[in-house]
Amino acid sequence: MINEAYKAMLGGKSVIRELSEYATARGKEIGYDNVFDYSLGNPSVPAPPDFARTMVDLYTNGDPVAIHGYSPSLGIPSVKEAIADSLNRRFGTAYTGNHIFPTTGAAGALAHAMRAVTKPGDEIITFAPFFPEYMPYVNGTGAHLTVIPADTANFQINFEAFEAALNPNVQAVLINTPNNPSGAVYSAETLTKLAALLTAKQTEYGHDIFLISDEPYREIVFDGNTQPYPANFYANTLTCYSWSKSLSLPGERIGYVAVNPAATDADLLEPIMGQISRGTGHNCPPSSIQLGVAKVLDETSDLSVYETNMNLLYDALTSIGFDVVRPGGTFYIFPKALEEDATAFCLKAKEYDLILVPSESFGVPGYFRMAYCIDTEKVKRSIPALEKFAHEQYGL
């Protein structure tokens, strides 16, 4: 008999993926250039040239046995040391290679981090708006995900609701900053307040509460700002990262968990994640991609196009009359829909070949997400369609 739980999941397909598939099909009818597809967060800028040169050199001049051989179960030691050194230079931390666990992207990092610090029946808290896949990620561990309602004024943490929800069954808190879908960047003030509250609750409950920090958009921050490094605020932090966005390598599936050296049992958590891999069949990212990324750790793609696109859309949306919090980073913007039913709003937008994602799956009703990782020229051409849609459907 097939697994009934996974069979049931077939009826709950990702809204984002379904909209992306619709956009592709619509593009075959009218030309994809004429479909303003804001559905999928797939980077639109190429990887840095150094990455391609590194991979060509690896395959041309490297040791084939090392390049194509099995990675050690905890990752390639030289790669782990390089990641630790990079983090220490950038953030003033004290990682060693033994605190770094390479994974298949940020999703693999989250899967290991969650399992390392919870058991079935435990509770993990996250904050709306949140990446919808957190739900199956957490459910797969046997833990329960509690979602704190959004502070829609600025999409920082709703601390009043958070503190009311905290209880002794909470073993981990999951944050995503810069945030998908809102584009919010958690401030140093927010992170300081979060750390103080978690520290107090650890004492009150008599057990650790781990902070799982999901940071794949860390390098995409606007207005000359940077993302404060959450692990510098709270000892029990597991940092989950991916080079999908910073190096535009989503298809390579390469990321890591970094265990704060100051965390409880810091020296045990990395080998524990190796044991988690045995039970999940994870078995590390490919050796060649680990080796290649290690050579370009401090580089990024040209990420400036995302800030250009954000400013174009923010100015256009506010001019039209949308209520929208200006993003501090990522390549997403999260305006309020022009009616309470965000799904109905996005269905009407499809008539104008505007592919927008309704907000219900992000845990916030009445909003929509636009992933503006598309060509700037296409963003500009979409603005008249947005204006026409808002005028004809809502009288703006």
Describe the protein.
The strands form 3 sheets. Strands 2-8-7-6-5-3-4 form a 7-stranded mixed β-sheet, with helices on both faces. The chain has a 3-stranded antiparallel β-sheet with strand order 9-12-11. It folds into 2 domains: 4-47 and 302-394, Alpha-Beta Complex (Aspartate Aminotransferase, domain 1); 49-295, Type I PLP-dependent aspartate aminotransferase-like (Major domain) (Aspartate Aminotransferase, domain 2). It is 42% helix and 12% strand. α3 (49-61) crosses α11 (287-294), α5 runs parallel beside α11 and α12 packs parallel to α14 (376-394). β3 (123-127), α7 (134-139) and β4 form a beta-alpha-beta unit. It is globular. It starts with a helix and ends with a helix. With 396 residues, the chain is an alpha/beta fold.
CATH topology of the largest domain: Aspartate Aminotransferase, domain 2
- Category by helix and strand content: alpha/beta
Total beta-strand segments:
12
- The total tally of domains equals 2
Rounded average pLDDT: 95
Task: Supply Rg.
Answer: 21 Å
Tell me the name of the CATH class of the largest domain.
Alpha Beta
List the helices and strands in order.
Answer: HHEHHHEHEHEHEHEEEHHHEHEEEH
Keywords: Aminotransferase, Transferase
Pfam families: Aminotran_1_2 (PF00155)
Organism: Bifidobacterium scaligerum
Protein name: Aspartate aminotransferase
Highlighted features:
14 helices; 12% strand; three-stranded antiparallel beta sheet; Aspartate Aminotransferase, domain 1; Aspartate Aminotransferase, domain 2; 12 strands; 396 residues; 42% helix; alpha/beta
